[in-house]
Amino acid sequence: MVATSEHFRSPKSHAVRSALLGVAAAFGLMSSPVHAQDEGSAPAPKVSVAAAYTQDITDETTFIGRGEAIDKVSIVARVSGFLQSKQVPDGSSVEEGELLFEIEPDLYHATLDARKADLDRAEAELELAKLELARKEELLKRDAVPVSERDIARANELVAEASVKAAHAAIQQADLDVSYTSIHAPFAGRIGRTDTSVGDIVGPSNPPLVTVVRESPIYVTFSLNEKQLITVLEQLNQTTASLAESGKSPEVYLQLPNGTPLDEAGKIIFVDNRIDPLTGSIMIRAEFENDARLIVDGAFLHVKIQALEPTPRVLVPQAALQRDQRGDFVLVVNNQQMAEQRYITTGDVVDTAIIVLDGLQAGESVIVEGLQRVRPGVAVDAVTAAESIGD
Question: Do 265 and 345 have their domain in common?
């Protein structure tokens, strides 16, 4: 008789095995229903949705511009001399014709007096030449003098007349030099810093005394590259020539260097007639009244051009927008109440919403709250954004 393994198992091992099988069976009976319940009856996560909507938006394009004074001049002394007085403090606003500086005028007054004396002498010499000519002509009639003497007298009269004209011109020049000793503002504006002190010698070969800048109105110039130019012209339905016409010119808005929008609109008054081959851009100039003097010559600004007519645009709340390496996307709740990932092309921000240029239609629902609860392809329990979402 051959012995089997059953004959060598002890009663104790049978008991242990039976106990383990019983525990495993009990555990299976307890765990299976719970697992089935989790898989089959878990509720769909609640999310808050908002519908994409259409709104009339006035398109605008932003560029970098620079303030540029309409009138800006460096005041240079036109005559040489000691600076006698400075009439206005640095940084002052001045009116057209207001006296700014005085150069010592005594030398120029003396020169003017000398030129006037030269005129008196020239006029006297002319009178003498006329008398001499008249006497020679009378003598010539009597055959008392040769013709050559009469001709010489006539030539002397012409020389005397030329001397009188030269004296008048010298007086005019001396009078101008006297006027140049008083330096006036050529236009209304504001002066800058003066580096010259009273008592210094100034003149045409010296550095400028001061710079005067007209602050109102003022230009803002900016450049568009070829692509931007075509985009703007297409949006505005304009040409480069009509863009600067008063009746068709779009309004131009500014954002100041501190980020504050300027509460004033400007007008395009000039568009260059060619694209610069070195930069590939075309220069445009807008004019602003600058009543508040917030646009400063040389300042960099953000320039915005608005279209003449609004355009319907699709918008969604910014809260719905997400981004990954591929780009911007939203989670759309489709007709099957499933979350669907949709990549979109976005435009400008409008208050708390953002413009969707492509990828979404008006009326489609996007998830704005509860995004952390869902992933693409999962069924959701969607409620409108006005309703609360339970935890």
Answer: no
